[in-house]
């Protein structure tokens, strides 16, 4: 499983998937493709929607809706480190949950088991 070590911004010093904010007029899939390209250089030719997550952050009042996709069929040679993320491959049985967002340990196993789902996490 490819994760990125976040070097700046929200989630700094954590491993995470690739993604970010929508640009005007973008669909969730278009956003996922663009952000993946920008953050690690890959341009997946296949995206499959897997989950929707809702995060609320009490301290800031921020609410984030996250669409989770499985990306495949890409040129791995294009993989690069960027100023935002350092990509790293992990065995699915050895994910660095202790260096990821706390909620990942709850929903990532569902994702890896092929379950489509929606979840809400309150921080």
From TrEMBL:
UniProt keyword annotations, A-Z: Hydrolase, Magnesium, Metal-binding, Nucleus
- Which Pfam family is one of this chain's hits? NUDIX
Q: Its catalytic activity?
A: 8-oxo-dGTP + H2O = 8-oxo-dGMP + diphosphate + H(+); N(6)-methyl-ATP + H2O = N(6)-methyl-AMP + diphosphate + H(+); 2-oxo-dATP + H2O = 2-oxo-dAMP + diphosphate + H(+); 2-oxo-ATP + H2O = 2-oxo-AMP + diphosphate + H(+)
Q: Where in the cell is it found?
A: Nucleus
User: What Gene3D superfamilies does UniProt report for this protein, alphabetically?
Assistant: Nucleoside Triphosphate Pyrophosphohydrolase
Please give the GO cellular component terms listed in this UniProt entry: cytoplasm; nucleus
What GO terms describe the biological role, i.e. biological process, of this protein? DNA protection
Q: What is its EC number?
A: 3.6.1.56
Which GO-annotated molecular functions does the record name? Answer: 8-oxo-7,8-dihydroguanosine triphosphate pyrophosphatase activity; dATP diphosphatase activity; metal ion binding
Q: In this protein, which residues make up the domain named Nudix hydrolase?
A: 1-116
Q: Which cofactor does it need?
A: Mg(2+)
Record's PROSITE patterns? NUDIX, NUDIX_BOX
Source species, domain of life: Eukaryota
InterPro entries (alphabetical) = 8ODP (IPR003563), NUDIX_hydrolase-like_dom_sf (IPR015797), NUDIX_hydrolase_CS (IPR020084), NUDIX_hydrolase_dom (IPR000086)
Q: Which family does it belong to?
A: Belongs to the Nudix hydrolase family.
The job of this chain, per UniProt, is described as: Oxidized purine nucleoside triphosphate hydrolase which is a prominent sanitizer of the oxidized nucleotide pool. Catalyzes the hydrolysis of 2-oxo-dATP (2-hydroxy-dATP) into 2-oxo-dAMP. Also has a significant hydrolase activity toward 2-oxo-ATP, 8-oxo-dGTP and 8-oxo-dATP. Through the hydrolysis of oxidized purine nucleoside triphosphates, prevents their incorporation into DNA and the subsequent transversions A:T to C:G and G:C to T:A. Also catalyzes the hydrolysis of methylated purine nucleoside triphosphate preventing their integration into DNA.
Kindly state the subunit structure of this protein.
Monomer.
Name the chain's protein: Oxidized purine nucleoside triphosphate hydrolase
Q: What organism does the record attribute this protein to?
A: Aureococcus anophagefferens (Harmful bloom alga)
């Amino acid at each position: 499983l490819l994760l990125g070590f976040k070097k700046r911004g929200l989630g700094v010093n954590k491993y995470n998937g690739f993604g970010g904010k929508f640009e005007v007029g973008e669909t969730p899939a278009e956003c996922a493709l663009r952000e993946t390209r920008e953050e690690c250089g890959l341009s997946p030719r296949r995206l499959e929607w897997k989950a929707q997550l809702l995060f609320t952050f009490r301290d800031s009042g921020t609410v984030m809706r996250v669409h989770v996709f499985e990306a495949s069929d890409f040129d791995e040679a294009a993989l690069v480190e960027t100023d935002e993320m350092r990509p790293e491959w992990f065995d699915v049985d050895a994910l660095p949950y202790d260096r990821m967002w706390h909620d990942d340990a709850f929903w990532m196993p569902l994702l890896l088991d092929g379950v489509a789902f929606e979840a809400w996490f309150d921080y």
